[in-house]
Specification:
8 strands; three-stranded antiparallel sheet; 13% strand; metal-binding; alpha+beta; E3_ubiq-ligase_TRIM/RNF; single chain; Znf_RING_CS; Herpes Virus-1; Double Stranded RNA Binding Domain; 166 residues; rod-shaped; 2 domains
Length: 166
């Protein structure tokens, strides 16, 4: 039976389980002490450097007769790394979606599709003097007076040619 070829399914882990109880951030260089608790290597060393009498676990209080050897928890380090990658990917996706939404909103009048419904901007709302899609007309502009964008453009062109201000 070979484990090398298996792909592991994504197992959700609470971010709290991957956080150091001393600095409260994601574990950096996760280290396990003899009672089984994990801390950032730098945090537990700093914590123990401040202990004058005995050395104990900051989480459960278990005392150790001497300063224990610190063991790097490679499995936990990989979980933290994967979690950080996932968080970074999610943040990038959210930033990208937000930027796309801003671009869509800022150029909604130039685009041919509604930023909200992704439908053609082919309805003119005379009440609000805006170009909108049919869904916006039915939902957000209910009770207003409408026309087709092409007709309104022709009307404005005729008025401009006649010297009438719109």
């Amino acid at each position: 039976f070979s484990v090398m070829g298996l792909t592991s399914p994504h197992i959700p882990v609470s971010i709290n389980h991957l956080s150091c109880r001393i600095c409260t951030k994601l574990l950096r260089n996760p280290t396990t002490i003899p009672c089984g608790h994990n801390f950032c290597r730098e945090c537990i060393e700093w914590y123990w450097d401040g202990e004058q009498r005995d050395v104990s676990c900051p989480e459960c209080g278990q005392r150790f007769p001497s300063r224990p050897c610190l063991i790097r928890n490679t499995t936990l380090a990989e979980m933290v790394r994967d979690t950080e990658r996932g968080l970074n990917r999610k943040r990038k996706e959210e930033e990208s979606a937000e930027a796309q939404l801003k671009r869509s909103r800022s150029s909604a009048t130039e685009n041919t599709l509604c930023w909200l419904h992704n439908k053609p901007l082919d309805v003119y709302c005379y009440t609000d003097r805006k170009i909108i899609c049919a869904d916006c007309a039915a939902i957000r502009h209910r009770g207003h007076t409408f026309g087709l964008v092409m007709e309104e453009r022709k009307r404005k062109q005729v008025q401009e040619n006649q010297g009438v201000t719109v």
